What does this fold into?
Amino acid sequence: MHLRKYSLIALLILGGLVLIASQAFLYSDKTTHPYLIEQIIKFYNYHYNSDLTPRQIEWVKQGSINEDQWPRNWYYHFYDPVRNRGFGPLSAKEWAQNPEEQMKYPGGDHTWQRAINDYSAGYKKQAFISLGHVLHLIEDMAMPAHTREDPHLNGEPLEEWTGNLPEGSSFYNIAHPLINQDVKPKELDNLDAYFDEMANFSNNNFFSKNTIDNTIDEYGRVRPDAKYSEPKIVKEIWQDRTGYGYKKIDNYSKLFRVVKIEKDKRGKKTYFLDNTTPEIHAEYFSLLAREAVINGAGVVKLFFDSVTEPGYEIIEPEKKLSFFQKIGNKIGEWVSFLKSAFDGLVRSPDYAIKSIVKESVPELEHMATTPWIFDEELARGDEAVEKGGPIIELIIEEFLEIGSPKLELPEFDDIDDIEENDIEESEFQEEPEESYQEQS
It folds into this structure.
C-alpha cells in the first residue's frame, strides 16, 4: 500500500517538474531577459567609465539566456522576501551564491563568486556569462509570481504578455527615459541587498494571478488570514459593472491599476488578472522593468568594484565535439538534472512540495476518471469521483508527513473500503451582504 502511494506521488511530482519547467520561466529567455540586459548595460555604460564592449554585452546576454535553458534548474528562481525563503531548498538569492549546489546541475557553477574570480584570473568571457546568469535572477525578482510563492503551473498572464511584445517594442526603451529623467543606478553594499530590494518592490506592490484571492476578499479588503498584507487597494474606479483597483506604488506619487474588477448582476465582485487585462500588464511591466534596470546597473557596478583587473585576458579555444560526444553530453546532462532535481525535491520544504503537487494535480473529478491515476474499474461515474478524491488527498497528506510520529492515517487496502460517510464536506460561512463605499 505504501509503495503504491509513494509511486503515485512520484508520478505527480515528475508531472509537476515537466509542467513547471515549461511554465516557470516568466520572462522569456529569448526576448525579455536579453532585452533587459541590453538596457541594464546601456544604463550602466552611461553612468560609469568601465564600459562593456559589444562582445562582452553578448556574453552577458548569453548567460541570461542560459540560466533558463532546460535542463537548467527552475525551482531556485524564487525568493519570497516576506518569509525569507525560496520555493526549493534554496532561494534565488542563495542559489546565485552557492557554487556547491550549482555544480550539481548541467551548466555548472555560474555564481556571483565565480564571475568575480574568473574575471580577476583573466577569464573574462566566462566571467561575463556568469554575470548574465546572476542578472537573470535579479530580473526574475521583478516578477510577482517569483516573489509571492506562486509556481504558476497554469500560466502567468504577465509572462504571456511580455513574451508577445514585438522586437524593438517601445516597452524595451527603458534606459533613455531614465537618463533623460536624471535617474541614477541604485548603489547597494552587496548582492543580497539587490535581491531584497527587487523582491520587496515586486512582492509589496503587485499581484500575481494566483495570489489575488489569498490576499484580498470579495470586497477588496486584505483578508485577516492573508498570506501577504500587500498590495492594499486604496481606490476603485468603476464604469458600469467593470472597474479597476488602484494602489500607490512604492517610490511613485501617483496611483496605478493593480487588478481588474467585474461585478455580476447581484453586485458580487471578482478581482482578477488574465489575458484580457493587457492594460494592467503594460503598467506592471513598465514599473517592474524600470526597477530591474536601475538595480541591475547597480549590480554591474558592484561586480566591477569587486574584481581585480587582470594583466591579460585568457581566451580558451572552442571545443569541437563529435556527434556521439554531443549525444553523450546530453544524456549526462539529463541524468545529472534528474538526480539533482529529485535530490532538491527531497530537501524542499513541505509548503513548496504541497504547492507543486496541488497545482500539478488536475481537479479531483478529472483525476478520478483518469486511467493513469486509477485502475479502469475506479474511473466509473460519480462513485469514482466521490471515492477517488480522498485517496489522492491521503496520498499527498502522507507524503508530506513522512517521518512524523504524529502521523495516524487510516489504511485502505482498496478504494471500496472508503464509505460515503468517511468523506466530510467543508462548511462555508458566507460574508455579509455589505461592502465598503466604492470611489469613482
About this structure: Residues 235 and 246 are 5 Å apart (CA to CA).
